[in-house]
Write a structure and sequence with these properties.
The protein contains 14 helices and twelve strands. It has about 350 residues and is an alpha/beta fold. The strands form two sheets. Strands 3-2-1-4-5-6 form a six-stranded parallel beta sheet, sandwiched between helices. Strands 9-8-7-10-11-12 form a six-stranded parallel beta sheet, sandwiched between helices. The termini are far apart.
């Protein structure tokens, strides 16, 4: 009998969003089990309201809990959890050691993990698969397989109230709004600010309101892009929690974003997404998981230059982003919005008359 399950995902915010379908699948498969999730502090807000979880273990591995002393404390805490199953989507050696030290009889991770030798069950890492499907394959290897499960973020009533207040200018204008997410931790993943500025002006001219989304570190960038623009433009960067940003995106007509965490928030909102890929490629498995999306990218011999991006272009050109034209992104956005409207109209027409 499986009583206690631990999922370890202490990577980036986007990775934690993409592990939420696994959480849901585990709860479906083991409805009576206690399910714990280990994440970094930045990702806690995303999952602390998830009804499938019994406990969240926050591991500040690069902050207040950095170093061996705190790692040994975390090892002890994991051992005390008496887990039967540990699922490890994260491919680091540290995560594998935590799984091994737990004493769980079933320790499931990927064969490409740095600590794969510490797992009792090694699952083939298929790079062409979406990360969500790869994560679900961990559970399928020991229990019940699952179909497509969208990522989910669970908002509180307070989250909804904060978003309503943020969107008041848009609601009062009666304009549909498009969300722009111009930031990224990695500089090479950023489409130039001047391009976002030009796109914003084209969208405003097409009678769309604009809401800029991102973290507090993106606020100045968003101000630079939106400064002085006529029409309804809201800079929500740094003003919302991750849960609130996801709640806001559910109201958006579309999202235009770099390959960064907002892309995955958009997948959780299941809205049309236009994703701009530069140093990375969709083939890594981190493309949008929504029902409608478009990718804009250049076919260059230097791509991809890394799985995460970097602080500067290795060859000094940044052509992978500079050569993505504003008009193409604009047209892809208009096209994907039209596709959604056509889909909704067809669905409405197929409904039987009451």
């Amino acid at each position: 009998m499986t009583n206690n399950i631990l999922i370890i995902q202490t990577a980036y915010i986007g990775d934690v969003i993409l592990v939420t379908p696994l959480i849901k699948a585990v709860r479906r498969c083991f409805p009576e089990a206690r399910i714990h999730l280990m994440v970094i502090p930045a990702a806690q807000n995303l999952v602390e309201n998830n009804p499938a979880l019994d406990q969240i273990i926050v591991y500040d591995k690069k902050g207040q809990q950095a170093g061996l002393r705190f790692f040994f404390r975390m090892l002890t805490r994991v051992r005390r959890g008496k887990y039967d199953v540990v699922l490890v989507p994260h491919r680091s050696l540290r995560s594998a050691i935590l799984a091994w030290y737990s004493g769980a009889s079933r320790r499931v991770g990927f064969n490409k993990s740095a600590g794969a030798f510490l797992f009792s069950h090694r699952v083939r890492y298929i790079q062409s698969q979406h990360e969500i499907d790869r994560n679900l394959s961990l559970l399928a290897s020991i229990a019940c397989p699952s179909g497509k499960i969208l990522p989910e973020i669970f908002a509180t009533e307070q989250d909804h109230q904060v978003v309503e207040q943020q969107l008041k200018p848009v609601v009062n204008s009666d304009r549909p709004f498009i969300a722009l997410a111009p930031g990224s931790v990695w500089m090479t993943k950023r489409w130039p600010a001047a391009y976002y500025r030009e796109l914003l002006l084209k969208l405003v001219s097409a009678n769309y309101a604009i809401v800029m989304v991102g973290g507090s570190e993106d606020r100045l960038l968003c101000e630079t892009i939106s400064q002085g623009a006529s029409g309804v433009v809201i800079n929500s960067a740094g003003a919302l929690s991750l849960r609130q940003a996801a709640t806001l995106l559910k109201r958006a007509t579309a999202l235009i974003t770099n390959d960064s965490a907002p892309l995955h928030l958009g997948s959780a909102a299941n809205i049309p997404i236009v994703a701009l890929f530069g140093p990375t490629i969709p083939g890594f498995g981190f493309y949008p998981y929504s029902d409608q999306y478009a990718v804009v990218e250049m076919d260059l011999p230097c791509r991809p230059c890394g799985i995460h991006g970097g602080d500067r272009c290795p060859i000094g050109t940044h052509d992978c982003m500079v050569l993505l034209h504003v008009e193409e992104v604009f047209q892809k956005t208009i096209q994907i919005i039209k596709q959604k409207k056509d889909h909704e109209r067809d669905h409405q027409n197929r409904r039987p008359a009451s």
